[in-house]
């Protein structure tokens, strides 16, 4: 065939074409070239085409031939390229092989992959040339899809896999184990079931061998766990139990670690698979649990190990106990492992310093502390707080009695964590946590005292009312004393927070002997404390008023001047947060005192609310919500005496109920989108609050709100179908009966034959029915 491309006389001898002259001007000529390339026993022609790709003047001709082969004979081209890829290296260059490999990868199909891998596995054991080609085949392994191996090829394929596991060649073992793990990764492990026992025997042999490298053992461990996790129903359980024993023997045998700590990565690899096994089938570990736990705790307690290794060991124990059967396995091993785990977690929680100790919630500063606290929570939830504290007091007692403040604080923090996560079991034995914590409130170190105050707060939230019933005589004096510690403002703030949560669930009889001192300390905090302390002192005063009820009357005239002063100062300084907290406290106290005792105390707050329209405030200003709540509480306190203020209060509540939501759908920038979502959340909260308070006002004023009832109905009825927020819908629905009752009461009072009541019924009842039907559907 004549070539249409003239050859340059300067072409080097080694670069001149090996192909016969060829003119790619017709399909017939290209098909002839294809026949030569694909059908000849000698691949020289196709090798020459690949070589010519590097010769500038001949590239066009070779590309035309290759394009024709790719378009019309892709499968046959793939098979021919396979032969070239694995052709002896003295016949073709590395460049030619690489070019063939790239073309092969671009054409590689799943169907061809199955046909290609199997023959290669078959010749690996006997053909040294095939072993040399393993690096090239590894590049193709990611394309290998076992799903396309025909079922009638499975026996031969699995036989080839198992036979090659007897190879003494490192490369062969690594490759074959990679193929096995590829089967597990792709969910085609069922192919191996035909020779599963043989496969497990071969894996045991590799794991027991001292002649293979750590990389081969890692691959064998991965394959072993694959068999255990994926094929445990296809073979006798004892058979796989023995396989797990062999795996553990690679790291731990006859009480001794079998690898140096420089090989920590291998231990982490084992731990990672043990975690997966515990998560999938913890019961399977029952026969090897002593060995597994011994290995796990060695890695956990070794200070030379990296944090990620120790965390992984902790994760294994946690996953084990979070499984019911796994938890029983651990408990059956005796007390030692539980004590060691508790000791390890306490040590982690004790890794605090002067900078991180005073805030349990600022956990970014210390990863170890964060991990220890989260792990203690999971461990206590799984085993039960009462079980831990009654059965294993020694680790905690050791910390409480330690001279190191970090360990004492760790014990206190642990008890607060356990109380939060095991409240149901501890309520009947509150002394298990309360007694040790109360001993720490007077600790010599301020960090421990702060931790004790934080623990009192947590116990107050999660162990009420048992804590209040049995420990108010100890807790209240301790809180009062801590609030008086002006040398450490953080302890004062925490004591005020704990006071708020503790007194919320106290009775008036519990509080009565301590009211003088507690209120005196809180008022002093309002005088001398910084903003955060003032905020929590205000919250605590409101809680005391609610809990002590009538007994707070004796202190009302003493408390109000302080609150008025704080309110006036906060308003003058434009301190919206403190102003909102003060108004919240005052209105909460008025709810307890009742309208008969108020006299003119409400005037200053009413004037403040009237002169500060909510619409003028930023959507995130706390005064928006607190202002609405203040109107609602004033209405509740004053009853019909509230009517003069309705012209200001009701429009304010209606305006909040009518707020519209911003459209965030078309906003692409993440920062702006997040800002709009926050605004949307604030609006939804305000709408729901306004709806609730409108209902309360209607229920309190009854026919007295008659002049506003139509406008209220017009605002709330459409919200029955407000599906962006369930709380808004529910609040609007609950307001409907109150609207109807108020309208009917006004109608009866005026003795009108026809009133807006009938119209309201005709508007509201169908809307309620429609909303109910939509909810049901």
Characterise the protein shown here:
With 777 residues, this protein is mainly α. It contains 39 helices and 2 strands. A two-stranded antiparallel ribbon has the order 1-2. Residues 1-24, 360-365 and 751-755 have low confidence and may be disordered.
Percent of residues in beta strands: under 5%
- Which structural class best describes the helix and strand composition? mainly alpha
Q: Order of strands across the widest beta sheet?
A: 1-2
Tell how many strands the DSSP assignment holds: 2
Binned, the helix content reads: 55-70%
Number of alpha- plus pi-helical segments:
39
Mean pLDDT over all positions: 80
Molecular shape: elongated
Point out poorly predicted stretches. Answer: 1-24, 360-365, 751-755
Query: How far apart are the first and last residues' alpha carbons, in Å?
Result: 78 Å
Describe the sheet with the most strands. Answer: 2 strands, antiparallel
Radius of gyration: 39 Å
Map the helices and strands:
Blueprint: H1 27-39, H2 44-52, H3 59-72, H4 74-85, H5 94-107, H6 110-124, H7 128-132, H8 134-141, H9 154-164, H10 170-185, H11 196-208, H12 214-230, H13 237-249, E1 252-253, E2 256-257, H14 264-281, H15 289-301, H16 307-322, H17 324-332, H18 336-349, H19 367-383, H20 385-391, H21 394-400, H22 405-421, H23 423-426, H24 431-440, H25 446-462, H26 466-483, H27 489-503, H28 508-511, H29 515-528, H30 531-548, H31 553-572, H32 576-593, H33 603-611, H34 622-638, H35 646-657, H36 670-701, H37 709-716, H38 726-750, H39 756-776
Antiparallel strand pairs: 1-2
Helix pairs in contact: 1-3, 4-5, 6-9, 10-12, 11-12, 11-13, 12-13, 12-14, 14-16, 15-16, 15-18, 16-17, 16-19, 18-19, 18-21, 18-22, 19-22, 21-22, 22-24, 22-25, 24-25, 25-26, 25-27, 26-27, 26-29, 27-30, 29-30, 29-31, 30-32, 31-32, 32-34, 34-36, 35-36, 36-38, 37-38, 38-39
